[in-house]
Specification:
By secondary structure, the protein is an alpha/beta fold. The protein has 3 domains: 54 residues, no CATH class; 131 residues, 3-Layer(aba) Sandwich (Rossmann fold), CATH 3.40.50.10860; 164 residues, Rossmann fold (3-Layer(aba) Sandwich). The protein contains 17 helices and 12 strands. The strands form 2 sheets. The chain has a 7-stranded mixed beta sheet, sandwiched between helices. It has a 5-stranded mixed beta sheet with strand order 1-2-4-3-5, with helices on both faces. Strand 10, helix 12 and strand 11 form a beta-alpha-beta unit. Helix 2 crosses helix 17. The longest helix has 23 residues. It is globular. The two termini are 33 Å apart. The chain binds NADPH dihydro-nicotinamide-adenine-dinucleotide phosphate. The site of NADPH dihydro-nicotinamide-adenine-dinucleotide phosphate has 24 residues, from helix 9.
């Protein structure tokens, strides 16, 4: 990178850091975008003139609210609720809700900022937003989760709507929570609309939405492998997480002929050298989704496997790695271990799971690396398809949605190649995704004036 570009990036980041103190995750996400987009802006001065990037790092609106509720013992509990409406240049705000004790404004701003680029890449008309709460659904009864969701939605309902802001799920927000949130919205507004995505099949949900993020991540990785004339047949895969994204990444890997060796949760990872097959995966899905158990229990059911407490799976040799749990879950040392052990493709199912230093290791090794905003965009893309079906009051078949998802992932891949291909043929998917996502939003912002 030239010295003048570096100076521009440093000046921009100094300003962002001063304006957003105590927001490390947000600053990390902006830094990654700034490093690739600022050199591009310097060749396209219209974006500098309209101060597009400066405007894009400021959410259009941030809502923070109290969420009081009563637990089963009759005690009053208080959580904090958020919705960050980041950018609506290309459509209504769209992005998930996260319920997890680690939720802060910084985490939601990083997620909302990334969402703007991701949604742009999907080619669908969706702006970017994100929300959630520091509420921890783990260990709570269904009745407690319902009371929390009802209280959360009582405030959120003022700010969202099918043409304004359409939330979805994320960590800690699955089908159960979306159901309670939707029920309360409907009751308050007295209208049945597609205001949330990830809905149940009987009440406006789309087929393939639960599968979409995990499937899409693996479709994207398959596209990357195809650029090298390779596929998943006979390859091994290491996956972190055991939630929604991880489960369906495992399923698609199995379907494509890969052997999946690991899954994890916040307590550690399981390693099954015989491979997690469809039958074992069905057991895991029941454990996590119905019995709400811990991944550790896998080794009691399948004694050939081992549990590694407090550890992450990146030391296990594999051809492909899919971080599908949470942000900053793969550091430089672990990235080096993956590369040294022969990993050739890494596709992020989670948002920002690789630290900046880990990404540097991948870039240096010239392995195939896809950032989450490109590779995990299948989830929000299918949410966009759910919105279309709701508006049209129709329901597409499983095959139809899956085919659209596959085509969207191929399209995102080719946008990344367009903007990310180096002279030597190597594709920098981070640069490609950032610039491709930026251009559509930036051009729309210019069209719409200073708003
Ligand atoms: P889930 O809540 O279904 O699963 C999250 C998984 O990650 C669980 O296994 C959880 O373990 C683990 N995890 C969460 N926090 C931590 C932590 N701090 N350290 C280690 N493990 C952790 O969430 P999703 O599968 O929906 O989301 C996973 C990731 O994918 C997130 O980054 C999310 O933003 C991203 N994503 C999700 C999309 C979706 O459609 N759901 C769309 C695009 C991105 P435990 O049970 O122990 O907490």
């Amino acid at each position: 990178m030239s010295q003048s570009h570096q100076a521009q990036i440093d000046a921009f980041m100094a300003q962002v850091t001063a304006q957003n103190p105590h927001e490390p995750e947000f600053i990390q996400a902006v830094q990654e975008v700034a490093e690739t987009v600022i050199p591009f802006i310097s060749d396209h001065p219209q974006y500098a003139k309209h101060r597009i990037l400066e405007r894009m790092v400021e959410p259009e609106r941030t809502i923070i609210f109290r969420v009081p509720w009563t637990n089963d013992a009759g005690e009053v509990q208080i959580n904090r609720g958020y919705r960050v409406e980041f950018n609506s240049a290309i459509g209504p705000y769209k992005g998930g809700l996260r319920f997890h004790p680690t939720v802060t404004l910084s985490v939601l701003k990083f997620l909302g900022f990334e969402q703007v680029f991701k949604n742009s890449l999907t080619t669908l008309p969706m702006g970017g937003g994100k929300g959630g709460s520091d509420f921890n659904p783990k260990g709570k009864s269904d009745a407690e989760v319902m009371r929390f969701c009802q209280s959360f939605m009582t405030e959120l309902a003022r700010h969202i709507g099918p043409n304004t802001d359409v939330p979805a799920g994320d960590i800690g927000v699955g089908g159960r929570e979306i159901g309670y949130l939707f029920g309360q919205y409907k009751r308050l507004r007295n209208e049945f609309t597609g205001v949330l995505t990830g809905k149940g099949r009987n009440w406006g949900g789309s087929l393939i939405r639960p599968e979409a993020t995990g499937y899409g991540t693996v479709y994207f990785a398959a596209e990357m492998l195809a650029t090298k004339g390779q596929n998943f047949e006979g390859k091994s895969a290491v996956i972190s997480g055991s939630g929604n994204v991880a489960q369906y990444a495992v399923e698609k890997c199995i379907q494509m002929g890969a052997k999946v060796l690991t899954m994890s949760d916040s307590k550690g990872f399981i390693h099954d050298s015989a491979g997690i097959d469809q039958e074992k995966l069905a057991w895991i899905m029941d454990l996590k989704n119905n019995r709400r158990g811990r991944i550790q229990e896998y080794v009691n059911q399948f004694p050939g496997a081992t549990f590694h407490e407090g550890q992450r799976p990146w030391g296990i040799a594999c051809h492909a790695a899919f971080p599908c749990a949470t942000q900053n879950e793969l550091n430089a040392e672990e990235a080096q271990a993956l590369v040294s052990n022969g990993c050739i493709v890494i596709a992020e199912g989670a948002n920002m799971p690789s630290t900046p230093e880990a990404i540097e290791v991948f870039n240096h090794a010239k392995v195939l690396f896809a950032p989450g905003k490109a590779s995990n965009a299948g989830g929000v893309a299918t949410s966009g398809l759910e919105m279309s079906q709701n508006s049209l009051r129709i329901s597409w078949s499983r095959e139809e949605v899956d085919e659209r998802l596959l085509n969207i992932m191929k399209d995102i891949h080719s946008q990344c190649v367009t903007y990310g291909k180096d002279a030597n043929g190597h594709v920098d998917y981070v640069r490609g995704a950032n610039i491709a996502g930026f251009v559509k939003v930036a051009d729309s912002m210019i069209d719409q004036g200073v708003v």
